[in-house]
């Protein structure tokens, strides 16, 4: 029994429905639009929200890049890319600039995105207020009434307890002075990249059945207090062991033999292109 | 010479998938789909019910593919279901039209139409039958022909047909709380996501698709102490329901224009749950409420559990988690719960690094 799937897996009706929810999300920046999330051939929690967005958007001329925690080669990124290639047969790339759609889990690439590009972020927990309010019925009301004192209080309590804000990744942001939004579990380091992003940012939560968006040139501000400003992860005095980059998000690695801790670019494609540039310019010098 | 990405991930995945196939095939014997359909009825029924897809052959294929791993088989079928366009809606299926194979009531001994035990493990001794180790197809055929002969002599035709509902009897007696006929178009949570407060049709749909173990456990909590008192099985029936669709060629459909597209096996349960109701002037009386369960296939425990949860969500007593619709409905889906639990196996290097940063920061602050 041979089953042939439609282009990009879904039937056209399903794609249209997801695109409709996406359009609504773009029209109301930061608002979580419910949609009838489909079950996908990859597991819930493994990027089905992002995947549904990607599959609903993709056309024959698109070039897709998929990254998972900064890496194009991470098992799940490979897996998602393989699935899209299998069902849509489109071109994939590891070059950030080359891609028209970039699906990512928990990172925004180091190379600034441009107009016309779409960044699709996978979201496990789309509700920024869930930490203190388990009920969906209630959080929906809180958003409707722009009642965010709980979110502020949460940060305030962290300061009281630890002397600083203790949110790690997924630090909540305020979108266009209206909706508090979970930026997905990107490190705090990536939050500022959302602010006035030239690229369209779409966020998809498959299991929680929500789509939301940050349209290009939208104001995105990380929640913070005047006297306790928002701080990104510190990689002060650290650089990438391979390409020497500073001011990027680094992975902390451990050398078993020397017992040394060293650092490496988390964005592997960024690191690679820097290495290639360096070797080319060296080549020019020597040649 | 430029640097290229290490292609470790891709190769490792391919090898892992090969290894998975090896595990399925390593004994040099493959499962025949027909044999799965013939012999794994319980598993097939459970898979169809949790997948919301009624197709025994596809369920058998999923079971083979998943090596009998239930959550994986359900996952496969659900993903396949996502690709199917919705071409028709059936006409209303009335369970009064069920051709019954099994039907019991724990509330009344003498129910109109009688109790029909049908096929059930309820009265078997769970002693491993070692004879089955040696069972052959020939044994099966022989047993069948003997059984069929026996049936010809004894069969009582009236048992295989439509039977009145036990609840009709109670309703006539006025022992039920009044409820109005509700003919609103049911919601479909696979087309429009669940909203709160939920509608009854949303609740019933999520419950019937729920993971059998999860639905059973939560219902067990209800009757053990976190919810209502001891409910009674008013009626449990297992049988086949005919499914008709409107003729696509007529804009206006008469009943005889409809097309019969097949039948589905289902388990239907009506639980009777005693409830105290105010009748005015501070007076109270006890009436019965119904908890309703309906599942694809023969899934009796699940259908009963569904009936219990239907009622506890209908009451919505937030003192118990089992009365909180978000708590119950958001957490019983197999694909969702197993997916999110298993995602913990994915790399979390970036997020963990971010956590480390905060842990170090709070440490250094305290040392100051």
From TrEMBL, chain A:
GO molecular function: 4 iron, 4 sulfur cluster binding; lyase activity
Keywords: Lyase
Superkingdom, natural source: Bacteria
InterPro entries in the record: PhnJ
GO BP: organic phosphonate catabolic process
Protein name: Carbon-phosphorus lyase complex subunit PhnJ
Automatic annotation (TrEMBL), chain B:
UniProt key word Lyase: yes
GO molecular function: lyase activity
UniProt keywords, alphabetically: Lyase
Taxonomic path: Bacteria, Bacillati, Bacillota, Bacilli, Bacillales
Protein name, per record: Carbon-phosphorus lyase
Any single biological process term in GO: organic phosphonate metabolic process
Listed InterPro entries: PhnI (IPR008773)
């Amino acid at each position: 029994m041979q089953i042939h799937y439609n282009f990009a897996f879904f039937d056209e009706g399903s794609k249209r429905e997801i695109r409709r929810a996406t359009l609504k999300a773009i029209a109301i920046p930061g608002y979580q639009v419910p949609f009838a999330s489909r079950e996908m051939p990859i597991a819930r929690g493994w990027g089905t929200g992002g995947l549904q967005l990607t599959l609903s958007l993709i056309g024959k001329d698109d070039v897709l890049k998929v990254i998972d925690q900064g890496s194009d080669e991470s098992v799940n990124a490979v897996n998602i890319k393989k699935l899209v290639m299998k069902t849509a047969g489109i071109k994939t790339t590891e070059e950030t600039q080359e891609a028209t759609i970039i699906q990512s889990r928990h990172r925004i690439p180091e190379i600034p995105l441009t107009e016309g590009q779409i960044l699709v972020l996978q979201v496990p927990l789309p509700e920024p207020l869930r930490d203190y309010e388990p009920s969906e019925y209630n959080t929906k009301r809180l958003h409707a009434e722009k009642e965010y004192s709980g979110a502020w209080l949460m940060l305030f309590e962290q300061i009281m307890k630890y002397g600083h804000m203790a949110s790690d990744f997924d630090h909540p942001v305020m979108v266009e002075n209206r909706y508090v939004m979970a930026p997905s579990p990107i490190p705090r380091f990536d939050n500022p990249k959302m602010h006035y992003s030239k690229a369209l940012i779409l966020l998809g939560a498959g299991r929680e059945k929500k789509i939301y968006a940050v349209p290009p040139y939208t104001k995105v501000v990380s929640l913070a207090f005047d006297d306790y400003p928002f701080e990104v992860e510190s990689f002060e005095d650290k650089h990438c062991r391979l390409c020497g980059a500073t001011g990027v998000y680094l992975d902390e690695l451990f050398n078993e033999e020397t017992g040394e801790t060293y650092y490496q670019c988390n964005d592997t494609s960024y690191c690679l292109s820097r290495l290639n540039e360096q070797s080319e310019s060296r080549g020019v010098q020597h040649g | 010479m430029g640097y290229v990405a290490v292609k470790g991930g891709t190769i490792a995945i391919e090898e892992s998938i090969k290894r998975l196939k090896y595990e399925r095939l390593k004994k040099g014997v493959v499962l025949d789909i027909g044999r799965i359909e013939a012999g794994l009825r319980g598993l097939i029924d459970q898979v169809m019910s949790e997948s919301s897809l009624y197709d025994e052959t596809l369920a058998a294929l999923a079971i083979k593919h998943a090596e009998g791993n239930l959550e994986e088989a359900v996952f496969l079928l659900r993903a396949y279901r996502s690709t199917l366009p919705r071409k028709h809606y059936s006409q209303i299926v009335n369970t009064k039209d069920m051709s019954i194979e099994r039907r019991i009531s724990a509330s009344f001994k003498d129910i109109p139409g009688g109790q029909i035990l049908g096929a059930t493990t309820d009265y078997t001794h769970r002693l491993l039958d070692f004879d089955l180790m040696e069972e052959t197809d020939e044994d099966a055929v022989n047993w069948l022909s003997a059984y069929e002969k026996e049936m010809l002599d004894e069969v009582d035709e009236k048992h295989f047909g439509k039977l009145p509902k036990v609840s009709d009897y109670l309703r006539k007696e006025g022992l039920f709380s009044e409820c109005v006929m509700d003919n609103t178009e049911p919601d479909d949570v696979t087309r429009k996501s669940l909203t709160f407060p939920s509608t009854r049709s949303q609740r019933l749909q999520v419950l019937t698709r729920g993971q059998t173990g999860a639905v059973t456990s939560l219902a067990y909590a209800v009757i053990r102490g976190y919810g209502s008192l001891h409910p009674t099985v008013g009626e449990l029936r297992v049988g086949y329901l005919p499914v008709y669709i409107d003729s696509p060629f007529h804009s206006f459909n008469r009943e005889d224009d409809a097309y019969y597209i097949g039948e589905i096996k289902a388990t239907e349960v009506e639980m009777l749950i005693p409830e105290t109701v105010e009748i005015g002037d501070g007076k109270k009386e006890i009436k019965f409420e119904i908890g309703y369960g309906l599942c694809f296939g023969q899934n009796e425990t699940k259908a009963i559990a569904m009936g219990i949860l239907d009622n506890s969500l209908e009451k919505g007593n937030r003192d118990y988690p089992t009365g909180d619709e978000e708590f119950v409905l958001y957490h019983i889906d197999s694909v969702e719960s197993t997916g999110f639990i298993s995602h913990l196996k994915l790399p979390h290097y970036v997020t963990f690094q971010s956590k480390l940063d905060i842990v170090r920061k709070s440490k250094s602050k305290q040392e100051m």
